[in-house]
């Protein structure tokens, strides 16, 4: 019974890790579509989102089966519930990558981003993808220290996000309101993606240590 | 055992219903703070958010206890998991009301909203509060038809949200980029609040019918 439980739990962790890879790739491609105004890449991200939704549905179903068949208690129960929460965050990360790709498609063949802010999105994209991949590593290794470092990296994302606002709100901004609106929403998509990646890693730490570091929904202060 | 289970489940439903009332009130007050540039009201919403977070933590803890003690299976298991998901959505709705209140505080004593968009926010606020209260009613009555009607009301919210963008992106817009950025984010907070309210109601329908109507994260298409 215990062995079957641990096998199934390991299987769930593999599914979560694979979802991290999927959403990291989706955000990497979405950022490329955004920076290069590449419609084909945007379309691939958009059509690929259903696979992430399916992966979440399967992960949730398997977690439900495990709960129903093994009826775990105490820490084991919390572990399985953490998997369900993490899968929800990961699906949401996929949605956010989808939103970025849709923004690229909506403005195509025009570029969404004026030159002044390209660097910000290039860097926020890099951090977002890195956060997803590090969350994957935390799931695989259960490395509590690495999970803590994700918080620092997410702080860098939040700093970029704040600076981005100062750029578009500056008197020198010549690209008008529609562009500022696009950038405001896009900035928020990256920032929320980072928050969810941190939340996934924190849930894994919780599973390892039995204590939730800080609170999972933090960072979203705007 | 079954009776204890149903008592505890009824207790969880009461907690969810009470959270609906709390987040509905928070959004009502936050909208008032926004429309009237009322700092005292904004501060009350901001300091009141901790109570919503606590209510979610208690609801989740009680749901965990119920799972651990009663080890429900099949529909019963899904019901308890739906409660956990709904509580998460409700906490997030509280966060979104908090963001609205913080926007009002950030610009005080200036008003955040130019005259042209006040009507939009007044109406989006009304719908948001109504959605939270109807979600509460769905939890209390398990009225599947009412849950379906929430979807239509949320469509009205999405329409307002889209029109709002056409107002701020119009060439006649004279309030500049900073104001457009505030309005973009605020519009999104209301729209997401509505999505979560619908998701809470849908989870309740799921509990009653055993089938999830559509998909819980829908509507967030921008």
TrEMBL record, chains A, B:
The keyword Cytoplasm applies. It comes from the Bacteria. One of its GO terms (biological process) is phosphate ion transport. Its main location: cytoplasm. It is found in: Cytoplasm. Transmembrane segments: none annotated. Residues 17-103, 122-204 form the PhoU domain. One of its GO terms (cellular component) is cytoplasm. Keywords: Cytoplasm, Phosphate transport, Transport. Homodimer. Belongs to the PhoU family. Plays a role in the regulation of phosphate uptake. This is Phosphate-specific transport system accessory protein PhoU.
